[in-house]
Amino acid sequence: MSAPMDAAAPDGEPLVQAEPPSTSSPSLEAYALESFVRFLNEWKVEVLPEEAQSQGSQSQLFYHEQIRRLRAADERTLLVDWQHFSAWNPTIASAVMGSFYRLEPSLRKAVQIVAREVEPEYSREEDGTDKEFYVSIVNLINCDKLRDLR
């Protein structure tokens, strides 16, 4: 797999947003939802030169391609690389790390929103209801506090 590009929006601006609401604020869920949708829509990776010729581009939207692969494999769990997310916006990544169980429904909803944009037919069940998607965080570095090691 190729290495991620510098975290920047399509217009070249850095992708560091303002501080999120406090972890006790109900709007933290909305902030996480909005931020995760942006992350899934903006994270790009460089493609290998031979792939770039066939695609006509030097980069691709990584998580859009992952959603296409979910459809091809008929799966519902999007694997999100923690290194990508924390490089994209360390502030929201820290909030997600500290309140994962609270924010996990927002992350799942974000995947559903992006899947609806990328693969509209796949984002719906046969009865027309929204398909449930899941998020699995991979490549997470586990750091224990010194006091916890006793």
Automatic annotation (TrEMBL):
Residues in coiled coil: none
Residues annotated as domain MCM N-terminal: 34-139
Pfam families from the UniProt entry: MCM_N (PF14551)
Region (Disordered): 1-26
SUPFAM superfamilies: Nucleic acid-binding proteins (SSF50249)
Record-given protein name: MCM N-terminal domain-containing protein
Originating species: Dunaliella salina (Green alga)
